Amino acid sequence: MKRRKIEAVKLVRERGVSVAQAGRDLDVHENVLRKWVKEFGSDPVQAFPGPPRPDIRLTTRHFDLLIAAAIAWQMRHHATKP
């Protein structure tokens, strides 16, 4: 998706295609394309970052599961201790 946005912005900025024409050609609403051009223009390096990396969410989820397992183990261990 990021590549598509960058190519659409390049059509407008580098090739001089109007936003309206590029939007029609790419089947993207003109207002959406204007937003992409604006976002890319303010900081091309940081433009279109995409969703958060799933591995970060998994790590947090795994941490929560490990904590829950540790608590459950402690409760079982202490309950069976004389």
From TrEMBL:
<dbReference type="GO" id="GO:0003677">
    <property type="term" value="F:DNA binding"/>
</dbReference>
<dbReference type="Pfam" id="PF01527">
    <property type="entry name" value="HTH_Tnp_1"/>
</dbReference>
<dbReference type="GO" id="GO:0004803">
    <property type="term" value="F:transposase activity"/>
</dbReference>
<dbReference type="InterPro" id="IPR002514">
    <property type="entry name" value="Transposase_8"/>
</dbReference>
<dbReference type="GO" id="GO:0006313">
    <property type="term" value="P:DNA transposition"/>
</dbReference>
<dbReference type="InterPro" id="IPR009057">
    <property type="entry name" value="Homeodomain-like_sf"/>
</dbReference>
<protein>
    <submittedName>
        <fullName>Transposase</fullName>
    </submittedName>
</protein>
